[in-house]
Amino acid sequence: MSNEIEIGRGKRGRRAYSFDDIAVVPSRRTRDPKDVSVGWQIDAYHFELPIMAAPMDSVMSPETAIAFGRMGGLGVLDLEGLWTRYESPEPLLAEIAQLPAEAATQRMQEIYAEPIKAELITQRLKEVRAAGVTVAGALSPQRTQEHYKTVVDAGVDLFVIRGTTVSAEHVSGNAEPLNLKRFIYELDVPVVVGGASTYTAALHLMRTGAAGVLVGFGGGAAHTTRVSLGIHAPMATAVSDVAAARRDYLDESGGRYVHVIADGGVGRSGDIVKAVACGADAVMLGAALARAQEAPGHGWHWGPEAHHSVLPRGERVEVGTAGTLQEILFGPGRQADGTLNLVGALKRAMATTGYSDLKEFQRVEVVVSPYQPH
Questions:
Q1: CA 137 – CA 116 distance, rounded (Å)
Q2: What residue segments make up the domains of the chain, in order of their start?
Q3: Structure pTM?
Q4: Going by CATH, does the domain composed of 17-368 fall within 3.20.20.70?
C-alpha cells in the first residue's frame, strides 16, 4: 500500500509523520519501572542512559559534559564552539543570553568569527578526559578535514561528525570533499555521523563504517530550516525509515549493527519514548538539556546555524530554566509538561507497555493519532 498523496496534478508526496502524530499503545502486560533497563552500548562504551547531549554551546561546556557523563549519559563537546575559540568564553555566553532579539544574529556572527584554536581543542578534551568520563567531540563535515588530527591526538573515545545534513557523497566544486569511508577506515575511534533523514541517505552512511547515524534535519527547537530553506523531515517517519536501513544493512553486512540516534524534535519526555518506539537506539538532546540550571546558555538555546556568516537558518530561542540537570534527567518532576524526569518517564512508558529493555521496546505497537494541543 502506498501512502502517496496527490499534492496537485504534477506532484505526489509521501505522507510523513512527526512524533506529535503518533502514540504508543499499551499491551496486555505491564512491568514494574524498577525492573526496566535503559542502558545503551555503542562500540566498547556502555552508558546507563540512551542519551547524547547535543554539541551546542547553549547545552554543553566541558563542565556540563563531565556532569552529564557522571550521570550516565554521553556529553558531546562542540569543537567549533566558543570553548575552542576563547580561553574564557563565559562572559560571551552571558552576553548572548542578554542580547536584544534584533541584534542577536549579527552580534553572534561577530563573536563566532574568532578563529578556532587547535590548542584549545586539546585543552577542552583533556579536561573531560581527566574527569574519567567517556570523551566525545563534534566537528561539522566542513571542518573535519582541518581539525580531526588535533581531536584524535587529544584523545576522544567517540568522534561525532554533525551537520544539518550529511551525505556519504558530498559534492563540491571548490573544495576537497570529505571522503567519509576512507576517513572512518583510517580513524581508530568509532564515528557517529549525521544528520540523515531518509532510508537511502542513512544506508550510504552506514556503508561508510559509521558506528551510529544521527537522524534528523531541521527538526530541532533552534532550527529555522523549514522556513528558510523549505526543508524539514518529520521525525517519526525519518526514524522508522532509518531503522529499516539499519535492519537491511545488518543483513547486507553479515551482522554489523549501526546505532540509530534521533537528533531533533525530541524536546520532551514523550518524544524520547516515541523515538525509541520508532526504532531509535538513543536520542540526542539539545533544548531539553538547555533548560538545565547548569546549562551554559542561561535559559537560551542556539545552534551553529544561528550565526552562519552568510545564511543564518537558526535562531536563539528562549527555552527557560526547568530545573537542575539531575532533575531534568531523574526528577522529581514538579510539573506535568515532560521537561523533568526524562529517564523516569521513559522507564514508566516501557513498564506500562510491558517491556524491560530498549531493544524490546522498539517493537512496541504505535498508532497514528494526531495530537491537537489546546
A1: 14
A2: 17-368
A3: 0.92
A4: yes
